[in-house]
Design a protein that fits this description.
heterodimer, A: 83 residues, mainly alpha, 2 strands, globular, B: 257 residues, alpha/beta, Rossmann fold, six-stranded mixed beta sheet, three-stranded antiparallel beta sheet, 9 helices, 12 strands
C-alpha cells in the first residue's frame, strides 16, 4: 500500500516510462536516417528523435515537457477513440 | 448694455451654429500593420518556421488592403522596432519569433535580443497585438493589456514546431492572424485558430504521434488577453469642412442637373 506521496512519485516515473516507450515506438517506425535528422524545434533548440529520447530519459526541462505533451496526446486519442 | 450682450451672444450662437454646420466628421477604417520577423542564421525556429510563416501573413495583409511595414532580420533591433512603432503608429503589431515570459525578441547583429518588454510595454498602448512565439501571453501580454493594448493574442507556454510537418504548423499558427487581417474579432480569430489546430491534429494523429502531440500543445496554450470583441483594425477620424467638399460641389450640381 503506497502513501499519497509514494504513489505520486511512482506515477511520475510511469509518465516518464510511457513517454520513453512512445518515443522509442515512434523512432522504431522511422527510417533509420530520419531518427537522426532534425525534427523538433522549441525556442532556440532543435532535436532529432534520438536526441529528444535522451532528453526524456535524462529528465531535462525539455524532456519533461515533451513527456507531458505525449501524455496529453494519449488523453486526446482516448477521447476520440469512440467518436 | 443687456441689448449689446444679447446681440453679441446671438452672434456667437449663430457663428457656432454655422461652424457646426460646416464641419462633419468622417470615420474610416485604418489598416496599418507592423510585422516584426527576425531571421537569425542557424536558428531553426526563425529560419525554417517563423520567418516564412510571417511572409505568408504579409501577403495576406496586402491582399486585405493593409499598409504593411515589414521589419525583417537585423532590422528588428530594439531601436528600429521602437522607432517604427512611434513613427508609423500601427493599428496592429504582428510578431513572429522567440518569446519568453516577459519579452518578445528581435535580432541585432544576428544576436537574438529583447525588443519589447516591461521597459517599453507602453508602446502597445491603443494597439492590437499578436505574436507567434513562446510564453509571452503569461507575462508581457497582461502587462500590455495594463498599458491599454486593445487585445493580445499569444502563447502562454513553449511554442513547439515539428520541422517535418512545418507547413501544417504554419497553417495552424497563421489562422488567427489571417482572421484578424480579414477584420474578424479576436474571439472569432481565436475560434478559427482552434478549429485549424484541430484539423491539423486530425491529419497528424494517424501519421506521427509526436507531431500531433506538439500541435495539440500549441492549440491548448493559445490565449486571448484583453477585449475579445476588439478587431485589429483601427479607426481614423477626419474632419470634412466646406474647404474639403467645395471642389466636389460643381460635380454634384452637374449631376443634379
Amino acid at each position: 500500500m503506497s502513501t499519497y506521496d509514494e504513489q505520486r512519485k511512482k506515477e511520475k516515473q510511469l509518465t516518464k516510462d510511457l513517454a520513453i516507450a512512445d518515443v522509442k515506438e515512434w523512432i522504431g517506425k522511422l527510417p533509420k536516417e530520419k531518427a537522426k535528422s532534425p525534427a523538433i524545434v522549441v525556442g532556440t533548440k532543435t532535436f532529432t528523435p534520438e536526441e529528444i529520447r535522451k532528453e526524456v530519459e535524462n529528465d531535462t526541462e525539455y524532456g519533461k515537457e515533451f513527456a507531458k505533451i505525449l501524455a496529453k496526446s494519449r488523453i486526446e486519442l482516448a477521447k476520440r477513440k469512440n467518436q | 448694455m443687456s441689448k449689446i450682450i444679447q446681440v453679441s451672444t446671438a452672434k456667437l450662437v449663430m457663428d457656432k451654429l454655422s461652424y457646426a454646420n460646416l464641419i462633419k466628421w468622417r470615420f474610416a477604417v485604418s489598416k496599418k500593420l507592423l510585422i516584426i520577423r527576425p531571421n537569425v542564421p542557424g536558428d531553426n525556429y526563425t529560419a525554417m518556421f517563423s520567418y516564412q510563416a510571417a511572409e505568408q501573413v504579409k501577403s495576406k495583409a496586402i491582399a486585405e488592403g493593409w499598409t504593411v511595414t515589414d521589419l525583417q532580420a537585423n532590422n528588428t533591433n530594439r531601436v528600429n522596432v521602437e522607432q517604427k512603432i512611434n513613427s508609423v503608429n500601427p493599428d496592429f503589431i504582428i510578431h513572429y519569433d522567440h518569446g519568453s515570459q516577459y519579452a518578445l525578441y528581435g535580432q541585432n547583429n544576428n544576436a537574438i535580443t529583447a525588443v519589447l518588454d516591461a521597459a517599453n510595454v507602453d508602446l502597445f498602448n491603443g494597439k492590437a497585438a499578436s505574436t507567434v512565439s513562446c510564453e509571452s501571453a503569461s507575462g508581457l501580454g497582461p502587462l500590455a493589456i495594463d498599458s491599454n493594448a486593445k487585445a493580445y493574442l499569444g502563447y502562454d507556454e513553449l511554442h513547439w514546431v515539428h520541422l517535418w510537418y512545418v507547413n501544417k504548423f504554419i497553417e495552424a499558427s497563421n489562422a488567427a492572424n489571417y482572421a484578424l487581417l480579414e477584420g474578424k474579432t479576436y474571439q472569432q480569430a481565436y475560434d478559427l485558430a482552434i478549429q485549424k489546430y484541430d484539423e491539423k491534429y486530425n491529419e497528424l494523429a494517424p501519421v506521427d504521434v509526436s507531431a500531433a502531440g506538439l500541435i495539440l500543445h500549441d492549440r491548448d496554450h493559445l490565449q486571448i488577453l484583453g477585449n475579445a470583441s476588439a478587431k485589429a483594425t483601427g479607426i481614423t477620424i477626419s474632419r470634412i469642412t466646406t474647404a474639403t467638399i467645395a471642389p466636389k460641389i460643381p460635380k454634384i450640381v452637374r449631376r443634379l442637373k
